[in-house]
Amino acid sequence: MTMSAMTEQVWHVEDEVYREIEEACKTLYIESLKDLPPDVREAVKRAYDKETYDTGKQILGTILENIEVADNNKLLICQDTGIMVYFVKIGRHVRFDGVRLEEAIREGTKRATLEHPLRSSICNTLTRKNIGTGTGKHVPVLHWEFVDGNSIELLALPKGSGSENMSYLKMLYPSAGIEGVKKFIVECVVESGANPCPPTIVSVGLGGTADLCAALAKKAAAREIGKPNPDPEIAALEAELLEAINLTGIGPNGLGGASTALAVHIETADTHITMNPVAVNMMCWPARRMRATFEPGKPASIHY
User: Fold this and answer.
1) Are 144 and 99 a contacting pair, CB within 8 Å?
2) pLDDT at residue number 3
3) Residues 174, 233: contact at Cβ < 8 Å?
4) Which of 103, 115, 207, 273 could cysteine-pair with 269, CB 3.0–4.6 Å?
């Protein structure tokens, strides 16, 4: 490729795009709270069809009714508007002001809270003071990834506290092996019980350091249900764990049944020879997420 062709691919983000990103983040927050992705809807329907326990089937039926009421009346699926988490993918040919981009994301989140309005759940960790904007120190939470291409993608993930409180990290020793990993994950599900509003997506990070492992678990929570990890060994582990978790009998809302989890998602990283980190992050049944994609010369695309 010539230098001229490479130069043509570069996208210098201008003022108008930052305004579009701000507006899109407002939309992402509001709409992700109202419009459940198709894969999550289908997963709940499949769970309802397969459920053999009467109480479990009744609860899943109520969940499906909840989704329908939210659709028909443009209401929030859940009263907990969560803590906003964004996964931001930046193409290698995008030239941008990182501070302005972060400010646009933050302002869009704030405007959604004030203009919709949404319940503001963000407070000071020590004083518990809530300024009512849905934002705060290091909130919204941003995860950055740099990829090929010349686009910007924002994945919005409003994370409710019921599921986020059911988060776990354990620094296993290598001697624990894969059996130790599986045991810990299932124990986390059992300990969580009804708290994360099952059926859940059990999201797992394996490897890296403590902080990377936890971030991988959160990334796993955002994966589409029905898309296994591309690594066949990890995909097989996901399937094995899903079967084991649904045999616990915890069931929908923790009241019994075969639908404790809709999926198990695992993301991995390499780690130190003396470490075997495992993180578990639960995602409640309303696994809310929405994306916005920005490309040069095109309007913002809002999608799942």
Assistant:
1) no
2) 46
3) no
4) 207
pLDDT interval class at 104 (50, 70, 90): very high
Average pLDDT value over all residues in the chain: 96
Of 258, 239, 243, the residue nearest 199 (C-alpha): 258
Question: How confident is the model over 18-67, as pLDDT tens digits?
Answer: 999 999 999 999 999 999 999 999 999 999 999 999 999 999 999 999 99
Q: What is the pLDDT of residue 187?
A: 98
Our measurement of the distance from residue 286's CA atom to the centroid of its chain's CA atoms, rounded to an integer in Å, reads: 11
Does residue 276 carry a pLDDT above 50? yes
If phi > 0 it is left, if psi is from -120 to 50 it is alpha, else beta; for residue 208 that is left
Cis peptide before 299 (omega within 30 of 0): no
Q: Tokens 């508007």 — which residue?
A: 81
Task: Compute the residue count for the chain.
Answer: 304
**Residue for token digits 């045999």?**
247
Rg of the chain, C-alpha, whole Å: 20
User: Hey, is 4 helix, strand or coil?
Assistant: helix
The answer to whether 297 touches 35, Cβ cutoff 8 Å, is no
pLDDT of residue 1: 46
Q: Which two tokens stand for residue 202?
A: 């059990």
CB-based contacts of 87: which residues, under 8 Å, 6+ apart? Answer: 143, 145, 154, 155, 157, 219, 222
CB–CB of 78/286 below 8 Å?
yes
Helix ranges, the chain (H): 3-9, 15-32, 38-50, 54-73, 98-115, 161-164, 177-192, 210-221, 232-246
Question: What does DSSP say about strands 11-12 and 94-95: parallel, antiparallel, or unpaired?
Answer: parallel
pLDDT on residue 6: 52
Would the pLDDT of 5 be above 90? no
How is residue 223 written in tokens? 């994966």
